[in-house]
Structures are given as structure tokens and as C-alpha cells.
Design a protein that fits this description.
This protein is an alpha+beta fold. The chain is built from three helices and six strands; from the N terminus they run βββααβαββ.
Length: about 130
């Protein structure tokens, strides 16, 4: 079985020209109510981070699954909000880079979400894409 693995931060810092930067937890609650420019900015940032792990991967026309492992900074975060957005960005990225044909149920057979625990110094989501 072939796999693809990369790590994504769960915090994003939005910078401005005339006011202080703002860092926020990347999750559905934050980005669904955000302006579409900010949503697209965050999505493109995550796609660029994941792109470095693509070396040697070409189109896979079979099924695949995702395993998302969350290491949080604050135990009060809602992991499902983070998992859903990271999964969405990952599916879109894999399609955009022609790694998968589609992210519908014919190809995507499931996602496993693991809450791994606290890592205050490096909060992140480890993404493992397994091709079957």
C-alpha cells in the first residue's frame, strides 16, 4: 500500500498592513463566518504546505482513506471543527494536484480522526493518506 504523509499547523496568522497580526485556530467555526478572501488565503496556505510532500506521487485511480491525528495546544478546542476543515482542504488539495480522481464515496472510503493529546509547543494535525 502506498501512502502520503504531511503535517499541517492548526493555527494561522493573518497579517495586515496597518494593524497587528491576528492568530486564530483553524476550524469550521472560524472560517465559515470569515470573509471568502480569508478562507481562500488559508486554503492556499495549507495547499502550499502539503505540496512539499508530493515528490514521487502521481495519479492514483483507486480508493484512498485519510487518517487525521490532532495534537492540540488548548484542551478546550473542538477537534471536530479542526478535523472537518483539514479533511476538506486535504481532499481539495489531492484533487487539485491530480493525486486522486475524485473525493466522492466511490474513491474516498473513510476518514479516521485521532485526538492524540496536547502538544503546546507544536500544535498540528498529522495527515496520512493511504491508497488502497
Amino acid at each position: 500500500m502506498q501512502s502520503l504523509q504531511f503535517s499541517l499547523p492548526i493555527y494561522y496568522t493573518q497579517t495586515f498592513k496597518s494593524k497587528p497580526s491576528r492568530t486564530f485556530l483553524v476550524g469550521m467555526n472560524q472560517l465559515l463566518k470569515a470573509h471568502y478572501h480569508l478562507y481562500n488565503e488559508v486554503k492556499q496556505y495549507y495547499h502550499s504546505l502539503a505540496a512539499s510532500s508530493l515528490q514521487g506521487h502521481s495519479l492514483h485511480n483507486g480508493t484512498y482513506s485519510l487518517t487525521l491525528t490532532l495534537y492540540y495546544k488548548n484542551p478546550n478546542c473542538d477537534p471536530e471543527n479542526i478535523f472537518s476543515l483539514i479533511a476538506k482542504f486535504t481532499h481539495d488539495f489531492l484533487q487539485e494536484q491530480n493525486i486522486i480522481i475524485n473525493d466522492n464515496t466511490k474513491y474516498h472510503v473513510g476518514t479516521t480522526s485521532i485526538n492524540a493529546g496536547k502538544d503546546a509547543s507544536n500544535p498540528r494535525c498529522e495527515v496520512l493518506v493511504t491508497f488502497h
